[in-house]
Amino acid sequence: AYSAAVPSPGGMRAPATAAGGAARGMLRLRGGAIAEMGDDTKISVFSKKDRLALTMSDFMRMRCLDNPADTEAKELETIMNGVQAACRLIADMVGKAGIQDMTGLAGTGENIQGEEQKKLDILSNDVFKDKLAKTGCMAYLGSEEEDEPIHIAGKHGGDFVAVFDPLDGSSNIDAAISVGTIFGIYRSNGSKTFPLVKGEKQVAAGYCMYSTCSILMISLGDGVNGFTLDSSLGEFVLTHPNVKMPKRGKIYSTNQGNLPQWPKGIKDYFDTVTNGKGESGEKYSLRYIGSMVGDMHRTLLYGGIFMYPADSKNTDGKLRLLYEAAPMAMLAEQAGGKASTGTMDVMQLQPTKLHERCPIYIGSSDDVDECLKYV
């Protein structure tokens, strides 16, 4: 970053000499000027690695140092290290899918959801299972791609449960549109069978979006923070500290192709806000990616509402409660937003099975409140 002798615009300049004949350091300033450095000079050297210094590993370690007696903080640090490792690998696979023959259907038929599995669905699921199991903190894993929960026993067994959708929006993969991973973490409390708990019992939740960059958004119950993958470092670095969702937006996000099956109240809501006759007086615009992670990421940052209502075709809703709706609800609430099934808070809904579905209305608090008046 500097040397004792630094070339000036007009040629070479000899180093200044301090008392006793020792050369003092010289520092090139902006524009080519030379400044002398004393013993107490502080230098800030900005480089690619310095711009975003706080990594997710640092962030988790600092939480442990701030609470040395909190054993859960230490276990969550270990779990999040596993999550990071899985997300880095999946980000790499997504980025290389088109050139390493990882696009298209896997040829394994449908999963438990009745959806054709893509190659990356299976690979991402294997990666997430492997990295979480190796943390030594897991008692059970529940995945969208698995018919039944997985019990982790032996030396790798722990007391936490991880539920996850390893590659949400995978139908977009072949078109190189953003996809993501969604996960929720809660305690098993020594349960001998897979525990089904309300979203309010989660101790952590998050998603990783794989797009023009890979962004990992997490909540540990004390707010929402976002970390962007710096591929040159191989680390997620803090880029979105203490995220707060706007109280109201002007974007709605939903599969409007389902409009014919929607109840009249929902149709009336969209007719009202798209014509600027809603409570805000703003005309709302539709933005829909078809990946909950991508649509929720935009909603979290810009405000508005994302929804997948129950309708005449999907009477219980479409999205899965444990590993899609509940984790996203935790993030929304921790960022100041809301999440509802239309009749109750998503975080209060008691699941009865791993792959249970539910309706969801999630986003800015004022937008969700307004929409629910029509449900």
Overview of the structural elements:
This protein has 375 residues and is an alpha+beta fold. It contains 7 helices and 19 strands. It has helices spanning 56-66, 71-96, 119-133, 264-274, 292-302, 321-334, 365-372; strands at residues 26-28, 34-36, 105-110, 116-118, 138-143, 150-151, 157-168, 179-187, 204-210, 214-219, 224-230, 235-240, 251-253, 285-286, 305-308, 319-320, 338-340, 357-358, 360-363. The strands form 5 sheets. An 8-stranded mixed sheet has the order 6-5-7-8-9-10-11-12, sandwiched between helices. Strands 14-13-15-19-17 form a 5-stranded mixed sheet, sandwiched between helices. Helix 2 (71-96) packs antiparallel against helix 3 (119-133). The longest helix is centred in the first third of the chain and has 26 residues, at 71-96. The chain is globular. The N and C termini lie far apart (62 Å).
